[in-house]
Specification:
The chain has about 325 residues and is of the alpha+beta class. About 40% of the residues lie in helices and about 15% in strands. Strand 5 and strand 6 form a beta hairpin. The mean pLDDT is about 90.
């Protein structure tokens, strides 16, 4: 059998049962694709279910506030996805319906080639091949391709090959088959080569290069940042602010922040003689291109201190109503220990 026929047959017998595969609703499919970017299915599925329950249509999502969307997204990370999702929902609402061509789908905020192909093929039967990490791995190993996948040349080569293998009348099944084959059979570590239906024709298996493919060029150096947070407790209230654009966690909320400096020697704090209690020290939090180290301090005071204009006071029990980064969630837990 050909590669394509083998993959489709494998999918019939081994494909994953997922709720967004039980519908042709482009909104539900698009939502799943955005959530599953940089997120495992086991983690993302409950979020998809909650979003669909709270906002069952793209129109409902468009009418939500950004704060509501960020709060529902809390814990998933990569928060630009949530902001883009909300913006795109407004785009769909303004245009009068979900787009049905690859170019118009790609025009939605946060939608690239892969996501557009996934939505287009699954929801509208458009003959467009998806190319993600799973597809890169399967194709690189089976055909023995050593071109780095994170280069312009590599992306072009793999996209062209995937498109050539795609059966136009079965685009949806083939794309989902490739995703599942890479996730279940041809996994990054310990692939199931002994039970692989493509074993006889797999170049990497024959040449012993399974662990070397796909090839990636080295990434950028990861930078470190030191953050010091102060949780101010004043008569049942605390102060937070919303993070601005142009940095991590845009639009999410956090307590008073002092970055890259010794908090004990901070001029603003020393002039008011505040008593700080260290609750957590050097808490490590890893992002894509950054490693964060955070200290968390408690400041209990009877009078509200003067703070920068972008900070505001809320009741302590209401902090759960605001979307906060996962790191802040972790730090806040130390208040109860």
């Amino acid at each position: 059998m050909s590669f394509t026929t083998t993959i489709l047959q494998w999918f019939k017998e081994n494909g994953r049962a997922l709720p967004w595969r039980e519908t042709r609703d482009p909104y539900a499919i698009w939502l799943s694709e955005i959530i599953l970017q940089q997120t495992r299915i086991e983690q993302g599925r409950p979020y998809w279910e909650r979003f669909m329950k709270r906002w069952p249509t793209v129109e409902a999502l468009a009418h939500a506030t950004e704060d509501e969307v960020l709060r529902e997204w809390q814990g998933l990370g990569y928060y630009s996805r949530a902001r883009n999702l909300h913006t795109a929902a407004k785009q769909v609402l303004a245009s009068g319906g979900f787009p049905t061509t690859l170019e118009s789908i790609k025009a939605l905020k946060g939608v690239g080639d892969y996501t557009a192909a996934a939505i287009g093929s699954i929801a509208f039967d458009l003959p467009a091949a998806v190319v993600d990490g799973n597809v890169y791995r399967v194709l690189a190993r089976h055909y023995g391709i050593k071109t780095p996948i994170n280069t312009t040349e590599g992306k072009k080569e793999f996209t062209q090959l995937a498109q050539e293998l795609l059966p136009p009348q079965q685009a949806s099944a083939f794309n989902q088959a490739m995703m599942d084959f890479g996730a279940i059979q041809c996994t990054p570590a310990s692939p199931r080569c002994e039970q692989c239906p493509l074993a006889e024709s797999c170049v990497a298996l024959r040449e012993g290069t399974i662990d070397e493919l796909p090839v990636k060029q080295k990434k950028l150096t990861v930078k470190e940042r030191q953050l010091s947070y102060i949780y101010i407790r004043c008569n049942g209230y605390t102060a937070i602010h919303r993070r601005p654009a142009g940095d991590i966690w845009q639009g999410l909320y956090e307590p008073l922040l002092i970055e890259n400096g010794e908090i004990e020697n901070n001029c603003q704090l020393s002039t008011i003689n505040c008593q700080l209690v260290l609750l957590a020290s050097r808490v490590k939090h890893i992002l894509t291109h950054r490693i964060l180290y955070a200290d968390f301090w408690l400041w209990e005071t009877a009078e509200r201190p003067s703070l920068p204009d972008d900070y505001f006071w809320i009741k302590e029990e209401e902090i759960s109503n605001y979307g906060v980064p996962r790191l802040i969630e972790i730090l806040l837990e130390s208040l109860n220990t």
